[in-house]
Write a structure and sequence with these properties.
The strands form three sheets. A ten-stranded mixed beta sheet has the order 3-4-5-6-9-10-11-12-13-14, with helices on one face. Strands 1-2 form a two-stranded parallel ribbon. Helix 5 (137-152) runs parallel beside helix 6 (175-186) and helix 7 packs parallel to helix 10. The chain folds into two domains: 4-62, DNA polymerase, domain 1 (Orthogonal Bundle), CATH 1.10.150.530; 67-352, Aldolase class I (TIM Barrel, Alpha-Beta Barrel). The chain has 13 helices and 14 strands. It has helices at residues 11-20, 25-37, 51-58, 125-129, 137-152, 175-186, 206-215, 230-236, 239-242, 245-259, 276-286, 311-323, 344-353, and strands at residues 4-5, 61-62, 67-73, 79-84, 90-96, 108-110, 114-116, 131-134, 162-165, 198-202, 220-224, 263-269, 291-297, 327-330. By secondary structure, the chain is of the alpha/beta class. The protein binds S-adenosyl-L-homocysteine and iron/sulfur cluster (SF4). Residues 117, 119-121, 124, 126-127, 168-170, 203, 342 line the site of iron/sulfur cluster.
Length: 354
C-alpha cells in the first residue's frame, strides 16, 4: 500500500486517506493541525486522537521529524541548525531576526530545498559539494516545523513569520516540491504564513521564473545576479551559460508584467568586484526594471579564494546605484561568526567527520 509522508500531506490528502481507512473526516483536520500548526514531533503528542486510530494512521503515513545534529547561536540572535534526514543526509537551516530589538515580531527562517546543489557556483559551499538529492515536501516544511518546535520549548508563543528559500539548493530545480511546501506553510490551519512573506531565491532558471509568475504570483522572487557581465557570471554561476543575462533579464521583465511584483536582485560583493565600473554596468543592466538591489558582502568559504570587500568601497558601490535611481540596501551580515553562509556548517561538520 502507498505510504505517504505525513508532514507533506495537504488537508485534502489527509481527508482522502482517512476515508480509505474508514476514519471520520474530522480526524484529518485534527491531524493536520497537530502536525502543521502545533508542530508536534510524535504520534503520542496528538492527545485527541486515540491509540487505535493512531495505529491505523501509521499504516498509511510515515512521520520522520528532522534530527537536530547541531545548533549554533550568534550574538545577533541568529540560530543555525544542522538537521539529519531519515536517510542520513544533512541539511542546514537558519533562523534570523530572532529577538532583535526593533523587529521583535519578525522571525525569518532560511530553508534548504535540496541536499547539495547541481549549479556549482564558485563562491558557494553547497555548490562545492555537488548535488545529492531533492528534498521532499515533508522535509522542506519540516525545517520550519522543527525550528518552531525547538524554539517554542523556550518561548511558547514563538511563530515563524517569514520564509526565504535561500538555504542549500536551487529551489526552482525542485519546483513542484517547493510550490507544494509553500501552499502548506500558507495554510490557515497550519503555519499561516502569508504568501507575500515567502521569497524564493534563484540563480536564474529562466523557464521556471516565468512558470512561477503564472503558478504563484503572490510569492516573492529574489534573483542572484552578482554581476552584470556575462563573461564574469559564466565563471561564477555556470547556469549563466545556459541562461545568459539577456534571457534572464527578459524573464524578469515578463515576471514583473505578470505579477506586478518587485524583484530583489542579490549582489554578493567581494574584494575583487567592488568596483565603480561593476556598479555602473549593474545600473545599466537594471535600468527600467522594477526591482531592488540587495548588496551582500561575500562570506568567505574555504577553497573559493573570495575575500570580503572593504565596507567603504561597498558604500561607494551602493551610491553609484542610488545615483542611477535604483533602490538599494546593504544586508548587514547575519551570523557570520557561526558560518551562516549557505552550506558552510555542513561543510565544516563533514570535515570533522573525515
Ligand atoms: N540557489 C539559490 C538559493 C540558495 S543560495 C540561489 O542561488 O539564489 C542563497 C543565496 O546565497 C544566493 O544569493 C547565493 O548567491 C548566496 N551565497 C552563496 N554562497 C555565498 C557566500 N559564500 N557569500 C555570500 N552569499 C552567498
Ligand atoms: Fe546552488 Fe545557489 Fe549555491 Fe549556486 S549559490 S551553488 S545555485 S545553492
Amino acid at each position: 500500500m502507498d505510504i505517504r509522508e505525513l508532514r507533506g500531506c495537504s488537508e485534502d490528502e489527509l481527508i482522502e486517506i482517512c476515508k480509505e481507512i474508514s476514519l471520520k473526516r474530522f480526524r484529518a483536520s485534527q491531524l493536520f493541525q497537530w502536525v502543521q500548526q502545533k508542530a508536534v514531533r510524535t504520534w503520542e503528542e496528538m492527545k485527541n486522537i486515540g491509540g487505535r486510530d493512531r495505529q491505523t494512521l501509521c499504516s498509511r503515513l510515515s512521520f520522520y521529524p528532522l534530527e537536530k545534529v547541531r545548533e549554533q547561536r550568534s550574538k545577533d540572535g541568529t540560530r543555525k541548525y544542522l538537521f539529519r534526514l531519515n536517510d542520513g543526509e544533512t541539511i542546514e537551516c537558519v533562523l534570523m531576526d530572532y529577538a532583535r530589538t526593533g523587529s521583535r515580531d519578525r522571525h525569518t527562517v532560511c530553508v534548504s530545498t535540496q541536499v547539495g546543489c547541481a549549479v556549482g557556483c564558485a563562491f558557494c559551499a553547497t555548490g562545492l559539494e555537488g548535488f545529492r538529492r531533492n528534498l521532499s515536501v515533508a522535509e522542506i516544511v519540516g525545517q520550519v516545523l522543527d525550528i518552531t518546535y525547538y524554539v517554542r520549548r523556550e518561548d511558547p508563543d514563538f511563530l515563524v513569520t517569514n520564509i526565504v528559500f535561500m538555504g542549500m539548493g536551487e529551489p526552482l530545480l525542485n519546483y513542484d516540491q517547493v510550490l507544494q511546501a509553500i501552499l502548506l506553510l500558507n495554510h490557515r490551519q497550519g503555519q499561516n504564513i502569508g504568501m507575500r512573506r515567502m521569497t524564493i531565491s534563484t540563480c536564474g532558471v529562466v523557464p521556471r521564473i516565468i512558470q512561477l509568475a503564472k503558478d504563484n504570483p503572490q510569492v516573492g522572487l529574489a534573483v542572484s545576479l552578482h554581476t552584470a557581465r556575462d563573461e564574469v557570471r559564466n565563471d561564477l554561476i555556470p547556469m549563466n551559460r545556459r541562461y545568459p543575462l539577456g534571457r534572464l533579464m527578459a524573464a524578469c521583465r515578463e515576471y514583473t508584467q505578470i505579477t506586478h511584483r518587485r524583484i530583489t536582485f542579490e549582489v554578493a560583493l567581494t574584494a575583487g568586484n567592488v568596483k565603480q565600473e561593476e556598479a555602473e554596468a549593474l545600473a545599466r543592466l537594471l535600468k527600467g526594471q522594477f526591482g531592488h538591489v540587495n548588496l551582500i558582502p561575500v562570506n568567505p568559504v574555504a577553497g573559493t579564494g573570495m575575500e570580503r570587500p572593504d565596507p567603504e568601497l561597498m558604500r561607494r558601490f551602493a551610491r553609484v546605484l542610488e545615483d542611477a535611481g535604483i533602490s538599494v540596501s546593504s544586508r548587514e551580515e547575519r551570523g557570520a561568526e557561526i558560518d551562516a553562509a549557505c552550506g558552510q556548517l555542513r561543510q565544516q561538520w563533514e570535515g570533522e567527520l573525515k
